[in-house]
Design goal:
Chain A is of the alpha+beta class. Chain A contains 2 helices and 6 strands; from the N terminus they run E-E-E-H-E-E-E-H. In chain B, the strands form 12 sheets. In chain B, strands 8, 9, 10, 11, 12, 13 and 26 form a 7-stranded mixed β-sheet that branches. In chain B, strands 38-39-40-37-31-41 form a 6-stranded mixed β-sheet. The chains are: A alpha+beta, B alpha+beta. The complex binds zinc ion (ZN). The site of zinc ion (ZN) has 7 residues of chain A, from loops.
C-alpha cells in the first residue's frame, strides 16, 4: 500500500500507477552498437536501498514519473516528472 | 435450564432465549452468548477432534486464539468450516456441527490414529511422499495423487460447501487521523484523549462488545463505554478485525456485518472489507495467555485461566466445579477468587516456591512449588497428577480429583500487526515474553500488547499513545511517558514444559496441528533447528490460530535443546492476516459478470439486435458469430467466412486501438518507432507497420495514416492497445523529451466496421452520398479518404484488408456507429452478404497467413513471422540494434509456416506440438498457434512455427502431437500464405 505523491494529482494509492523500469538507465542512441544496447536493456543493478524508478500514473494524469524508492522499506523519497520541461513547471 | 449457568453473573440477556442446533440436537442459549459459552452452558465438552490423532477436543480459550473449538456453521451453500466457537455469536436458528470426525465428535473411528501415532511423526507426509522416486511429473506424482484423497480425508480440517456462495460482500474505503486497534482499557483511554483533542478517531474492535479484557470484570458496563465514545465523536467499529497493517498506515479490516443475525432476517452484506488510511495507528491488540505443555494437556476441560473468568463474568457460565489452576504468574489469583465466589472448589498450583499475593479473602487453596504432570481422562477430566521439581526432574507426588484444569504459563503480547511491518519483537527476560520493537513509522503500541499488565498502567499507556501520535504528527509538543512493562507483585518463573518420564507422552505445544513436545525434539534431531524450518517441519504455529498460544513453548523447547536463550532462537515472522479472511470478503462485488470490467463497442446493441453470439476478447465483449436459426458455431463461422470470399461480409472491428499523433516532430517520431520506412508516407496514405521492443522482439502491428504534415492516426491490435499507448507516452516523456509530439488515445471515439468480399464496392457505393469516392482511382489500396454516408454522416474510409479480399474499413464517430451499421447491412443484404464475427475473421486471416497475438506472443522476431522485409536497413529504430543479436538470428529458430493435415478429414487444435516422425517427445520442433476450418480449401488448416521454416520441411511430413487430447496426426508443412499468395483478390 505505497502512496505516491503525483506532482499533478497529489497523494494517490500505488494501485493507480504502473511500474516502468530503472530510471537510472541512459538509453544509447538508436544507431549505437549492439553491445551498448545489450548493456542498457539486460544489465541491471539489484539495489538494496534507494532506487530510482519510473512509474506512470496510468489511471490518473498519465504522467511518467521518476520516483526514488527504498527497496527495503518501500519508503518514497521523492517524486518528479520524468520530462525535464515538466520538472521545471512543477518546481515553480 | 442449565447446571452450568450461574445466577447473578454475566452480561447476557436472560430475558431472550435463543434456540440453536449442535450435531443435530436443539439447545438453548441467551442473547449475548457466543457459541462457545452456549455449548459450555449446555455442558457440551467435546466439540471437535484433533487434526492428526483425532483426539477429543474441547473449548480451550475465549477468543481468536482458540485452537480446540473449530466447528462447521450452517448447511448447504452457507456451510462454513473451521469457525472458532469462541468468536461466533449465537443467533436464533444457528446450526453448528463438529468436524474432522466420523460418525461424530463423541465417537470417532479415526481416533485409532492416536494409538498409531508413532507411525505418524512430524514430517510424516514429507518423508513418505518426497521419498517416492522420481518425485516429478510422473509416477511419484501419481502415487501422491492416488493417496492424497485418503490422506486429506483423514487429516483435513472441515470441508466447505462446493456450491456458489449466496452471500454478498462489499468493499469500502475510509481515512482518519488516528486508528486504534482494540478497545481494551488502553484503546478506550487513547480514543477519549484523541477525541478530546478534536481528532478524527476510528476505534476497531473484533468483538461484538467493546471493553477487551474488561468484559471479564463484573462491574464493567460495555454499553455505557460505547455510548460515551459515540458521544465524543469516536467512530467505533465493532465486529471488525484489523487483519493486516501495511505501508503508510494503511490497514485492512474485515467487518462481520450481520453474522450475529438469524439467516432469514439478514438484509445487509455478510462482510465488509475495509481499506482504511490513517495518519497514525495505535495498536492495543492485547495479549494472549499461554498454556503449559504436560502430558494429556488437551483433554476437554483444560482451558486458559483468563478464559474461565470471561465465561463466568461475561456469560454467567461456570466452566468447572472442581477446578485446578496451574500457573507460574500472578495473573490467575483474581480469577481463582471469582470462580470460588461463584461456587467452584478451587486449588491453585503455583510453581513458584513462594508468592506474596494481596487478596481480600482467601476462599481457595494455594499450593506452591507444584506443577501439573498428567491429566487422567479422555473425553473429560477425571483427575490431575501433580509433581514437584527436583534438579529439573519432575516427580509425581499426588493426584487431585477435578473436572477442570486451567493453565497460565504467562502472557504473550499480540505483536502481530507490528510484525506485519517488519518490526521484530524483543524478548523481555523479566516478564518472559516478546514485547514489540520500536516502529519507525507512525505506529505506537499501547496496553498489554506493549507488555504492560496492570489496568491503570494500560490506561496511562493509552493516553501516552495518543500524545505520542500528536507529537509525531506535529500537531503539538507535549510531554508524556509510557508506564514500564510488567506490573506483577511476584516475578514470573519459566514454566513451558513439564517433561513426563513416560515415553510416548503427549504434551501438546500446538493443539490445532497436534504438535507435541517430542515432535520439536525430533525436528532438532533431524537438523531442523532454525525457527522457520521448525515451523514448516512440524507445522507448529500454522493453520488458522497461527500459534497464538503455543509458539513460545515451541521456541523454549528448541532453545533448551540448543543450549541457547529464547531470543537467540528467534521468533517466526507473523504475516497477514491476523485471523482468517474469507475469499468472499477479498472478492467483494467483483464476482460473476463483475469479475472484470466489461468493454463494449459503440455498436454493441446493434450486434445483439442482429443476432450476435458474443465472446470475451480481453475485456471486450465482441461478436463471435451470427447463427442462423439452428446453426452450430462451426456451421455459422464456416458459412460466414465462405460468404465473405463469395460476396460480402460486415464485421465490427471497433475494439482496435486508435491513437492520434500530432505535433511538428510527428514524422520523426513515427519513423523511429516502426521498423519500416515512414518518413516519406504521403498524406492520405496508410501503411501497415510493425513495432519492436528495445530487445528486438515484436511488440505490435497495426496501421498508421498520415492526415496532414504534422498529424497521424495510428491503429493497434485490440490486445496491445493499452501497452502501445503507455509505450509511446514513455518514449516522449522519458527518452525523447526534445520531440514536440502529443499522443492521445481515441479508441473510444471511433466506431469501425470492416467490410470485405468481392461485392464490397457495390455495397459501399450504395451507402455513400458520392459513390465515386471509393473508386479504384480515388481510393487505391492502402489509401484513405474522407467521405459522407447517406444522410450526411461524415466518416473516414480506408482501403485495408485483413481478410485478403477487397476490403474497406469505415471509421465513424462512435455515436453514429449503429446508424452506419443499419445503412451498410441494408445494402449488403441486397448482395447476399452476411454479418460475421471474430471466429470467421480468424478463419479468413489464418487462410492468408496474417499474424495476430497468438503468433506475436512476445517471443517472436519480425524474421520469425516472415516479415523481415519490413525491417528497414536504411534507418535506425527501436529494436534495430538488438533484433539480430545472437539467439535471435540462429539458423534453427522456429519460423512461421502453415500446416495441413495429410488426411484431409483430420482436425487439430492450437497448442499442438509438432514433432519429427519417430521422435515424438518433449518440446518437439514446432508448435501450432492458430487453427481453423478453411471453407476455401475444404479442410482444417493451421498457422504456427517450425524450426528452420518451410524450406527445411519440403516433402517431409511431421507429427502433430496433442498430449492433452491424446491425439497424434500426420501433418504437412506448407507456406503460411495458404490462399492467394499474390494478393490478387484484395487489389481487385
Ligand atoms: Zn497524476
Amino acid at each position: 500500500m505505497i502512496i505516491i505523491k503525483c506532482p499533478y494529482c497529489g497523494d494517490r494509492d500505488h494501485s493507480e500507477f504502473s511500474y516502468g523500469s530503472d530510471a537510472s538507465i541512459v538509453y544509447p542512441s538508436l544507431d549505437a552498437p549492439e553491445k551498448d544496447w545489450v548493456e542498457a536493456v539486460f544489465f541491471r543493478e539489484n539495489i538494496k536501498g534507494i532506487q530510482r524508478e519510473t512509474w506512470q500514473h496510468s489511471n490518473g494524469c498519465r504522467m511518467w514519473l521518476e520516483v526514488e524508492r527504498s527497496t527495503i522499506t518501500h519508503e518514497i523519497k521523492s517524486v518528479k516528472p520524468c520530462h525535464t520541461q515538466l520538472q521545471k513547471v512543477f518546481e515553480k | 435450564m442449565s447446571s452450568r449457568r450461574i445466577e447473578n453473573f454475566g452480561k447476557i440477556n436472560r430475558q431472550k432465549q435463543l434456540k440453536f442446533s449442535w450435531e443435530n440436537k436443539n439447545y438453548f442459549g441467551y442473547q449475548g452468548d457466543s457459541l462457545a459459552s452456549a455449548l459450555l452452558a449446555n455442558d457440551i465438552r467435546v466439540v471437535g477432534r484433533s487434526f492428526k490423532y483425532h483426539r477429543p477436543r474441547g473449548i480451550m480459550s475465549c477468543g481468536v486464539e482458540e485452537s480446540g473449538g473449530l466447528v462447521t456453521i450452517g448447511t448447504g451453500d452457507r456451510k462454513e468450516p473451521n469457525v472458532r466457537v469462541t468468536s461466533q455469536e449465537l443467533y436464533e436458528g444457528l446450526i453448528a456441527s463438529g468436524q474432522n470426525a466420523f460418525p461424530s465428535v463423541n465417537f470417532d473411528l479415526a481416533s485409532i490414529n492416536n494409538l498409531l501415532s508413532r507411525f505418524v511423526p512430524a514430517g510424516f507426509y514429507y518423508k513418505t511422499f518426497m521419498g517416492i522416486p522420481p518425485f516429478e511429473w510422473g509416477s511419484g506424482t501419481s502415487v501422491w495423487m492416488f493417496f492424497e484423497k485418503f490422506i486429506r480425508k483423514a487429516a483435513g480440517m472441515g470441508r466447505s460447501s462446493r456450491l456458489p456462495d449466496p452471500d454478498v460482500y462489499e468493499h469500502a474505503n475510509d481515512h482518519c487521523d488516528i486508528l486504534i486497534v482494540g478497545s481494551g482499557p488502553a484503546g478506550i483511554a487513547a480514543a477519549k484523549e484523541a477525541a478530546d483533542r478534536k481528532l478524527d478517531v476510528i476505534l476497531v474492535e473484533q468483538d461484538n462488545m467493546i471493553g477487551g479484557d474488561q468484559l471479564s470484570e463484573s462491574e464493567f458496563n460495555s454499553d455505557e463505554a460505547f455510548k460515551e465514545l459515540k458521544s465524543l465523536g469516536v467512530r467505533v467499529m465493532k465486529r471488525t478485525t484489523a487483519f493486516g497493517l501495511y505501508d503508510n498506515c494503511v490497514l485492512g479490516l474485515v467487518e462481520r456485518v450481520e453474522e450475529n443475525v438469524t439467516l432469514s432476517d439478514r438484509r445487509l452484506p455478510k462482510q465488509r472489507f475495509w481499506i482504511v488510511r490513517a495518519k497514525h495507528v495505535l495498536i492495543g491488540s492485547g495479549s494472549f495467555e499461554r498454556h503449559i505443555a504436560f502430558n494429556n494437556n488437551d483433554v476437554p476441560g483444560s482451558m486458559t485461566v483468563n478464559a474461565s473468568k470471561h465465561y463466568l463474568n461475561r456469560y454467567g457460565v461456570l466452566t468447572g466445579k472442581k477446578i485446578v489452576i496451574t500457573t507460574n504468574n500472578d495473573s490467575v489469583y483474581s480469577t481463582a477468587e471469582i470462580l470460588a465466589k461463584a461456587g467452584a472448589n478451587v486449588i491453585v498450583l503455583d510453581n513458584r516456591k513462594e508468592t506474596n499475593i494481596d487478596l481480600n479473602k482467601n476462599n481457595f487453596e494455594v499450593i506452591n512449588g507444584v506443577v501439573p504432570y498428567n491429566i487422567n481422562g479422555s473425553k473429560k477430566i477425571n483427575s490431575l497428577d501433580i509433581a514437584n521439581s527436583i534438579n529439573s526432574k519432575y516427580n509425581k507426588i499426588d493426584t487431585i480429583t477435578c473436572d477442570q484444569v486451567l493453565m497460565s504459563g504467562g502472557w504473550s503480547p499480540a505483536v502481530h500487526l507490528l510484525s506485519h511491518r517488519g518490526v521484530r519483537p524483543v524478548w523481555d527476560t523479566e516478564n518472559l515474553c516478546f514485547v514489540p520493537g520500536e516502529p519507525k513509522e507512525n505506529i505506537t503500541v499501547i496496553g498489554s500488547a506493549r507488555g504492560i499488565w496492570g489496568k491503570g498502567d494500560c490506561i496511562d499507556s493509552g493516553i501516552a499513545g495518543t500524545l505520542d501520535a500528536i507529537n509525531k504528527l506535529g500537531i503539538s509538543k507535549t510531554d508524556y511517558f509510557f508506564p514500564k512493562q510488567g506490573g506483577w507483585m511476584n516475578p514470573i518463573e519459566p514454566l513451558y514444559e513439564v517433561k513426563s518420564k513416560k515415553t510416548r507422552s503427549k504434551s501438546f505445544v500446538d493443539f490445532q496441528h497436534d504438535v507435541i513436545c517430542d515432535d520439536v525434539r525430533l525436528a532438532h534431531r533431524e537438523g531442523f533447528i532454525s525457527v522457520e524450518h521448525l515451523k514448516r517441519y512440524t507445522t507448529l504455529g500454522m493453520a488458522n490460530d497461527q500459534g497464538k498460544m503455543g509458539n513460545i513453548i515451541g521456541l523454549s523447547l528448541m532453545a533448551d535443546l540448543l543450549g541457547k536463550e529464547i531470543p537467540e532462537v528467534g521468533t517466526t515472522t507473523f504475516r497477514p492476516p491476523f485471523t482468517p479472511v474469507s475469499i468472499g470478503a477479498l472478492a467483494g462485488r467483483s464476482v460473476g459478470k463483475h469479475f472484470m470490467p466489461l468493454r463494449t463497442t459503440p455498436m454493441h446493441a446493434w450486434n445483439l439486435e442482429n443476432g450476435a453470439t458474443m465472446i470475451d476478447a480481453g475485456l471486450y465483449d465482441r461478436p463471435w458469430y451470427f447463427p442462423k436459426s439452428n446453426e452450430t458455431i462451426d456451421e455459422a463461422y464456416i458459412r460466414e467466412a465462405a460468404t465473405v470470399r463469395k460476396t460480402v461480409g460486415i464485421c465490427d472491428v471497433s475494439s482496435l486501438g486508435k491513437i492520434a499523433i500530432q505535433g511538428p516532430d510527428s514524422t520523426e517520431f513515427i519513423n523511429r518507432i516502426y521498423t519500416n520506412a515512414f518518413a516519406k508516407l504521403p498524406i492520405n496514405k496508410t501503411r501497415y507497420g510493425i513495432m519492436l521492443r528495445d530487445d528486438g522482439i515484436v511488440l505490435d502491428d497495426g496501421t498508421c495514416w498520415r492526415l496532414s504534415d504534422n498529424e497521424y492516426f495510428m491503429t493497434t491490435s485490440t490486445s496491445q492497445a493499452g501497452k502501445v499507448m503507455s509505450w509511446l507516452e514513455e518514449l516522449l516523456q522519458v527518452r525523447w523529451t526534445d520531440l514536440k509530439v502529443n499522443v492521445t488515445s481515441v479508441s473510444e471515439q471511433w466506431g469501425v466496421a470492416a467490410i470485405s468480399g468481392p461485392k464490397t464496392r457495390d455495397v459501399l457505393s450504395q451507402c455513400l452520398e458520392d459513390p465515386s469516392t471509393i473508386s479504384n482511382e480515388n481510393l487505391p489500396f492502402m489509401c484513405f479518404i474522407s467521405a459522407t454516408l447517406k444522410g450526411g454522416i461524415p466518416c473516414r474510409i480506408a482501403r485495408i484488408s485483413f481478410s485478403g479480399e477487397l476490403g474497406f474499413e469505415i471509421y465513424i464517430q462512435a455515436d453514429y456507429a449503429n446508424i452506419m451499421m443499419d445503412i451498410l447491412w441494408k445494402s449488403a443484404k441486397q448482395f447476399d452478404g452476411c454479418l460475421y464475427g471474430v471466429e470467421a475473421l480468424g478463419a479468413l486471416r489464418i487462410e492468408k497467413g496474417h499474424v495476430t497475438g497468438a503468433e506475436l506472443d512476445g517471443r517472436t522476431t519480425i524474421d520469425d513471422v516472415g516479415l523481415g522485409k519490413m525491417a528497414s536497413d536504411k534507418k535506425s529504430y527501436i529494436g534495430s540494434a538488438l533484433r539480430k543479436r545472437g539467439v535471435l538470428s540462429a539458423s534453427d529458430r522456429e519460423k512461421l509456416v502453415g500446416f495441413f493435415p495429410v488426411n484431409k478429414n483430420d482436425t487439430f487444435a492450437s497448442g499442438t506440438i509438432i514433432c519429427e516422425k519417430n521422435n515424438i517427445k518433449g518440446f518437439g520442433v514446432g508448435r501450432i498457434t492458430s487453427v481453423t476450418h478453411s471453407p476455401e480449401l475444404g479442410h482444417w488448416i493451421g498457422l504456427g512455427f517450425i524450426k528452420g521454416g518451410v524450406e527445411e520441411w519440403k516433402n517431409i511430413n511431421v507429427i502433430g502431437s496433442d498430449p492433452i487430447r491424446n491425439k497424434q496426426i500426420e501433418i504437412q508443412v506448407v507456406s503460411s500464405h495458404m490462399l492467394d499468395p499474390k494478393g490478387e483478390r484484395m487489389h481487385g
